[in-house]
Amino acid sequence: METTTLSTKGQLILPKMIRDAHGWNAGTRFVVEEAAGALVLRPLTPAPPSRLDEVAGSAHYRGRPKTLSEMESAIAKQVKERRGRGRY
């Protein structure tokens, strides 16, 4: 069993044997979860790229199509509202 120590900055060093076995290099991002008194590290893997024909039907909209001008106006309105609430 490998051991490691928590640094004063809250950092852990994963033993080289474990990093090599999993192919984890510098910059690998992890999800950290608590589970039954333990911590679980899972490498964060990006979602695989998708094609338009795979997702085109996932956002159903019933109504007349919006014009580009209407979409730009709606986006500008939301940006203004969010900035007014101190977001973005």
Question: What do these coordinates show?
Answer:
The protein is α+β, with helices and mostly antiparallel strands and 88 residues long. The protein has a domain at 1-45: Pemi-like Protein 1, Chain: D (Ribbon). The protein has three helices and two strands, in the order H-E-E-H-H. It has helices at residues 16-22, 52-55, 68-84, and strands at 30-35, 38-43. It has a two-stranded antiparallel ribbon. The longest helix has 17 residues, at 68-84. It starts with 15 loop residues before the first helix and ends with a helix. The mean pLDDT is 87.
Quick tags:
single chain; 88 residues; alpha+beta; Pemi-like Protein 1, Chain: D; 2 strands
Instruction: Tell me the strand order in the biggest sheet.
Output: 1-2
How much of the sequence is in beta strands?
Answer: 5-15%
Nearest-integer average pLDDT: 87
Which word captures the global form?
Answer: elongated
Helix content: 25-40%
Poorly predicted regions: none
Report the order of strands and helices: HEEHH
CATH architecture of the domain at 1-45: Ribbon
Kindly name the structural category: alpha+beta
**Count of DSSP strands:** 2
Radius of gyration: 23 Å
- Put simply, the count of helices is 3
Query: In CATH's first tier, which class of the domain at 1-45 applies?
Result: Mainly Beta
Distance between the termini: 46 Å
Main sheet specs: 2 strands, antiparallel
CATH fold assignment of the domain at 1-45: Pemi-like Protein 1, Chain: D
